[in-house]
Amino acid sequence: MQTTQLGPIDPVLTLKEVTATVLYSRSQIYRMVRAGAFPAPIRLGPARIGWRRSSVARWLNQREDSAGGPAPPS
Question: What domain range is 23 assigned to?
């Protein structure tokens, strides 16, 4: 994580990066956001959204904790 005079920077992930990270499709992510089961994106501009990396990481960690640990290796 980078640091500026204002403090640490929490990078913003694009939808493409989020789908690659959590291995869900775009439509599944949006369904989960609407259901309150996935972090809501932040608006970056009129036609641009993204997800804070820390929010996605927290969501993944919660899933891992509720499942009893990491998935076994394939």
Answer: 10-66
Q: Could you tell me the two tokens for 6?
A: 């204002």
Report the C-alpha gap between 26 and 7 in whole angstroms.
32
Q: How many independent structural domains does the chain possess?
A: 1
> What residues does 3 pair with on adjacent strands?
8
- Please state, as a whole number, how many other Cβ atoms lie within 10 Å of the Cβ of residue 21: 15
Other Cβ atoms closer than 10 A to 12: 16
pLDDT tens figures, 14-56: 999 999 999 999 999 999 999 999 999 999 999 999 999 999 9
Residue 51 within a domain:
yes
Distance CA 37, CA 23 (A): 15
